[in-house]
Specification:
Number of strands: 12
Oligomer: single chain
Low-confidence stretches: 1-5
CATH topology of the largest domain: Jelly Rolls
Strand content: 15-25%
Helix content: 25-40%
Number of domains: 2
Length: about 220
C-alpha cells in the first residue's frame, strides 16, 4: 500500500461548518485551474479530495510553485483584493467553493474574522517554512529536506516499509525548490545511488536511511 503525503491540518471549525452547509462542490481535472493569479478574491475553497498546487508567473515568465495543498486544506485565504498565486489541480480534485459573503452571513462577523485570521496564520507558517527551505545552502540539502517533509507527512513512512506517493513531478519540485529540473533529477539519483532513498517508481519513494536523510536536511 502506498501512502500519500501529507495529512492536512484541520481547518477552523467555523469555516468547516459554514462550507459544509453552504458550499457548492466542484470537480477539477488534472492541471485545471481552480482560480487565477490576479483574479478578485471573492470565494473560499476547501479541498475535499486530491492535491492542488499554487503557482505564480513572474514578470520574466518564470514559474514559481508556492505550495502543495491536500484534502482538508483551505485555499484562497488572502488579505489583499486579488489572488497573488493561481491554484491548479495537480490530480483530479473535489473542491468546496463558497462566496466569502455567504460564509460571513452564516458564521457571523466575529467567528468569520477569527477563522480567517487562523487560516492566514497557517499560510504565513507555510511561507516561512518555504523561505527556510529555499535558504538552504545546497541543492542536495533542499531536495533532502523536501523528501524528509514528504515522508514525515505519512504515518509509518519514517524509515518504515511503506512507500510515499508523490503527486508532484520533477518540474513541480524544481519550481518549488528554486532549482532546475536537471539538478533535481541529479540529486534524486545521487540519493538513490547512496541508498538513502529508493524510487521503485518515478513518483514513489521509500526512505532507506532515515538518519542520513535527516542529517542532510538538518
Amino acid at each position: 500500500m502506498t501512502l500519500q503525503a501529507r495529512p492536512s491540518e484541520t481547518a477552523p471549525s467555523a469555516l468547516i461548518a459554514a462550507m459544509d452547509t453552504l458550499a457548492t462542490t466542484r470537480l477539477f481535472g488534472r492541471d485545471e485551474e481552480v482560480y487565477a493569479q490576479g483574479a478578485p478574491v471573492e470565494h473560499l475553497y476547501r479541498l475535499v479530495r486530491g492535491v492542488v498546487r499554487t503557482t505564480r508567473l513572474t514578470a520574466d515568465g518564470r514559474r514559481q510553485v508556492g505550495d502543495f495543498y491536500y484534502a482538508g486544506d483551505l485555499l484562497g485565504l488572502e488579505v489583499g483584493p486579488d489572488h497573488q498565486f493561481s491554484a491548479e489541480a495537480l490530480t483530479d480534485c473535489e473542491v468546496q467553493v463558497v462566496r466569502r459573503g455567504a460564509v460571513r452571513a452564516f458564521a457571523g462577523d466575529a467567528a468569520m474574522d477569527r477563522a480567517i485570521l487562523e487560516g492566514i496564520r497557517r499560510e504565513l507558517e507555510r511561507a516561512q517554512a518555504h523561505v527556510m527551505l529555499l535558504g538552504r545552502r545546497s541543492a542536495r540539502e533542499k531536495v533532502a529536506a523536501f523528501l524528509k517533509s514528504m515522508a514525515e507527512g505519512c504515518a509509518g513512512a519514517r524509515g518504515g516499509p511503506q512507500p510515499v506517493e508523490m503527486p508532484m513531478g520533477r518540474q513541480d519540485m524544481a519550481d518549488y525548490l528554486g532549482l532546475t529540473i536537471e539538478t533535481v533529477s541529479r540529486m534524486l539519483t545521487q540519493l538513490q545511488d547512496e541508498a538513502v532513498v529508493e524510487f521503485p517508481a518515478v513518483r514513489r519513494f521509500q526512505v532507506k536511511k532515515w538518519d542520513r536523510l535527516e542529517a542532510l536536511a538538518a
